[in-house]
Design brief:
The chain has 103 residues and is of the alpha+beta class. The chain is 43% helix and 19% strand.
Length: 103
């Protein structure tokens, strides 16, 4: 079910991060302001709530492992990106470096 079609009562039972996750699953990358504005609109929260809570929302996104802040300042879901992992094999007299892509 699309987040725009969900009942306000069901959305109120969810955390802001869970709603942000649903928004990003359905749409393109968004800024912190765009994400939180959409959440405030869905929950009929006023401009004052937006202004007072956007900082805490940003902090909660940075701590939630589902989200990834990209270089351009947009948020996306981490599952949509591969991560390059550097592995160093410290074998006998050798140091081989491997780059692997993980999802």
């Amino acid at each position: 079910m699309k987040v725009d079609k969900m009942k306000k009562e069901d959305l109120e039972l969810m955390s802001y991060n869970d709603i942000a996750n649903l928004i990003l699953e359905e749409s393109t990358k968004k800024t912190t302001a765009e994400l939180f504005k959409k959440i405030c609109d869905l929950l009929d929260l006023g401009e004052k709530t937006y202004e007072n809570k956007i900082g805490a929302f940003y902090t909660s996104l940075t701590k939630d492992k589902r989200f990834l802040l990209l270089d351009d300042g947009l948020w996306d879901l981490k599952k949509n990106h591969s991560v390059k992992v550097l592995k160093i094999d410290a074998g006998v007299g050798n140091e081989d470096v491997f780059l692997e892509e993980q999802k």
